[in-house]
Specification:
Strand order of the largest sheet: 3-2-1-4-5
Shape: elongated
Helix content: 40-55%
Strand content: 5-15%
Radius of gyration: 18 Å
Largest sheet: 5 strands, parallel
Number of strands: 5
Oligomer: single chain
Length: about 210
């Protein structure tokens, strides 16, 4: 284990994917998805429809077809469904190389890293094949767990995988509600706001 992490009282790290390792989608990517859905360029309305059923989709409670039928208000054909899935995947698979570099150093130092992501099954399958995935000791996805953060059950899978005392595990997520839930379980937290230096600092011992 990296001496700095050990000195900081950290035995393992649980990380979110989107908004931490993965970059948030650009406006152009949202527009591509909306146009693939044959939607207008009214992105606020499209995003509302997109997110309205996303939790159930992420939790594995909706199939790809059922999810997009709810978003669109009708069933897309097989070809349209494939195009929507491809555009959806494209939005979430661009990573922040600066964060990956921090995680590579932590991994090489022996610090266990565990992924805990709210993600539908098709996206989880793609993420498991990404080059950075080898940095993770384990990876947990909501669709496979059938539960999403901030439900405590989701965190428990990741905590168990670390084999560490929760008080010595750092949880990193870009959502405040997820961080609040993690703190209630005894985890240390870093509300990540897009600055890799914050992650590096969290792994360093206090001055």
């Amino acid at each position: 284990m990296t001496p700095t992490a050990a000195q900081a009282g950290i035995d393992a790290v649980i990380l979110d994917y989107n908004g931490v390792i993965g970059l948030q989608p650009s406006t152009d990517q949202w527009l591509r998805l909306a146009r693939t859905a044959l939607w207008s360029d009214d992105l606020p309305t499209f995003r509302h429809a997109f997110w309205s059923a996303r939790s159930a989709y992420d939790a594995g409670q909706l199939s790809d077809l059922a999810y997009w039928a709810q978003v669109l208000g009708h069933h897309p054909g097989a070809r349209r469904l494939r195009e929507l899935r491809d555009a959806d995947i494209d939005m979430w698979t661009f990573t922040d190389d600066r964060v990956v570099e921090v995680l590579e150093y932590a991994h090489e130092s022996g610090l266990p890293l565990v992924l805990l992501s709210n993600a539908p099954r098709h996206l989880s399958d793609v993420l498991d094949r990404r080059p950075w995935r080898h940095l993770m000791t384990r990876a947990f996805y909501s669709a496979r767990l059938q539960v999403c953060k901030p439900d405590p059950a989701a965190y428990q899978h990741a905590i168990n995988a670390t084999g560490a005392d929760p008080h010595r595990v750092l949880f990193v997520d870009d959502r405040t509600d997820n961080c609040h839930a993690a703190r209630r379980l005894g985890l240390r937290t870093l509300h990540y706001t897009g600055r890799p230096t914050d992650l590096t600092a969290a792994l360093q011992p206090p001055n």
